[in-house]
């Protein structure tokens, strides 16, 4: 009898959790996700794959828990008995991490340790090997030490979020070396999609653009437009997470496109789609600046290409366009016969 492939995800309700769940379900996995109790539903991104657990053959299961609650994490691990764990849960907003540093570090840093401790005990007690993926970030590189950034570039984190991710990275390495844990760090550069959280800059731009075209918004307020990011497509990136856990040996990998673009360039491509000039709509608001900024990120994915056979499939321009199209569609503005929707001159009140 073949063993059931059973994955446990933290952060299943997030952008990456939703794409990874789809990917794993397509490959025959039973998928278990940890969700937080909230007063309104927070499962929008996975509602389309949710199955009633009472129905025979259901392969997606949700469990209430939190990275700040170690007891519950242990209980879920014991109940699920996963073969693979993907630790995607995080307070993942860099700007917000300056406002809520303790909470961010507790979730991102100590939360990872809590999960690793649970895995370590579970593995030692049962002898069952669990493969562990840690969602590391290019934010760990922070202040530029070298470009392009590789697995050996030194970290210089520039936010509470990034400091916590550096801790999570090294504690994952330490548990791999100390307890023979199959644990991998993905060092993922920014990856976006129509499911990207609405307050990250890419989605903030494409969503605002669609609202401007629909006449629901007049201005878009942004912070630093000169920062440069290596932006890829989230669907490509979750595949890399899975590939890391299918290798013979655990290791750490940079996942990136190898290209970098400024926020200005993102605005150029996005607004060009609807024949508008972004300079007519974008205003500066200092509240979106960070006390310490990460100015330039560009990753070198050579190791992932060589060892995992992984490559990005979507270009920068394609990524911007697919996000713009999705937000226009969400506003009921579907381009017909290749023509772009016309801007509604009747602007509603600014929200
Ligand atoms: P999102 O912000 O979209 O999702 C974060 C997820 O974490 C949500 O499911 C959220 O739940 C959950 N979460 C938040 N706090 C807790 C907590 N205390 N306990 C348990 N779960 C919690 O992030 P992404 O999907 O974009 O990113 C996934 C991971 O990858 C994160 O760890 C992020 O830091 C990291 N990363 C992301 C990159 C990117 O460009 N997207 C690049 C590099 C790393 P809820 O829905 O209830 O809020
Ligand atoms: P980042 O993503 O900080 O790179 O972290 P974000 O989209 O928030 O910022 C990218 C750059 O855009 C600048 N910026 C603004 N950012 C936001 N959010 N809102 C604005 O109005 C705005 N104006 C300019 C920022 O200053 C920054 O330079 C993301 C998250 O997903 C992390 O969890 C992940 O680890 C990293 O990517 C890789």
UniProtKB/TrEMBL annotation:
Cofactor(s) demanded: NADP(+)
SUPFAM superfamilies, per the entry: NAD(P)-binding Rossmann-fold domains
An example molecular function term from Gene Ontology annotations: GDP-mannose 4,6-dehydratase activity
Catalytic activity, EC: 4.2.1.47
Enzyme class: lyase
Domain NAD(P)-binding: from-to ranges: 8-323
Protein's name according to its UniProt entry: GDP-mannose 4,6-dehydratase
Species assigned in the record: Stenomitos frigidus AS-A4
Superkingdom of source: Bacteria
Family named by the database record: Belongs to the NAD(P)-dependent epimerase/dehydratase family. GDP-mannose 4,6-dehydratase subfamily.
Keywords tagged on the record: Lyase, NADP
Record field: transmembrane: none
Substrates-to-products reaction catalysed: GDP-alpha-D-mannose = GDP-4-dehydro-alpha-D-rhamnose + H2O
Pfam entry (one): GDP_Man_Dehyd
Function in brief: Catalyzes the conversion of GDP-D-mannose to GDP-4-dehydro-6-deoxy-D-mannose.
